[in-house]
Amino acid sequence: MTTQFEIQGLKSSIEGKEILKGIDLKIKGGEVHAIMGPNGTGKSTLASALMGHPKYEVTDGSVTLNGEDVLEMAVDERARAGLFLAMQYPSEITGVTNADFLRSAINARRGEGNEISLIKFVRQMEGKMKELEMNPEFMHRYLNEGFSGGEKKRNEILQMMLLEPKLVILDEIDSGLDIDALRIVAEGVNAMRSEDRGFLIITHYQRLLNYITPDYVHVMMQGRIVKSGGPELAQRLEAEGYDWVKEELGIVDETVGQA
Ligand SMILES: Nc1ncnc2c1ncn2[C@@H]1O[C@H](COP(=O)(O)OP(=O)(O)OP(=O)(O)O)[C@@H](O)[C@H]1O
Ligand SMILES: [Mg+2]
Fold first, then answer.
1. Which ligand is closest to the CA of 48, given by its number?
2. Which residue intervals define the domain ABC transporter in the entry (predicted)?
């Protein structure tokens, strides 16, 4: 079955302030959608709301993955259903090694009675780390603790590769990556592109999209998707910035503003 992810009229608030003001987005398996937009327009909020972050209250709308109601699911159920988020600022967890964390995440996704064997897990993790040109020592380091910015981002991609999600959300995966790491991470993403997997890639820069060609590019302002197009839209934004979009749409302040 090919993946179908659908967001309809999604509204979300934080501490009573409405940030997302009605998001509509449909992502099919095999597609890569990029979301761009100025700072503070709701991009990370969308990612957090989709993953079920407790701070972000969903006040309206629906989200379905292959017909299943995502908003009804607890956070761990969303991961099990195949949602994955590489966060803009990955958290550090002291006392839990990267390998322990990944193995429990994989097993949670596979379900009881279907756990991965230790040998198979280690082999897979080693293989993927090699593809990402990560030092094997990162297997036994505490999760993200003391990782450099770029190391954290590479580690997020490692998680994605091992978890084989159905809908991948990457929030500024390119921030902090050096030139070689950007290419390595993009290759990792491209290798994961398939008919039963969709991608939502939040980025500020066309540069990433030179490596990962999106099918659709969306612009977010004021907590809404205000414009959509193909890869050429990202190129125009890179060259000209956002003023022309604001002018075209009569937007003065692009941030989510005060509720
Ligand atoms: N936990 C929170 N508490 C208070 N305000 C919040 C919280 N989370 C988000 N906001 C506000 O919501 C707005 C949107 O934030 P969000 O992180 O979604 O922006 P963004 O589009 O991802 O920006 P950037 O490009 O800088 O990452 C911002 O004004 C932000 O301050
Ligand atoms: Mg953000």
1. 1
2. 5-247
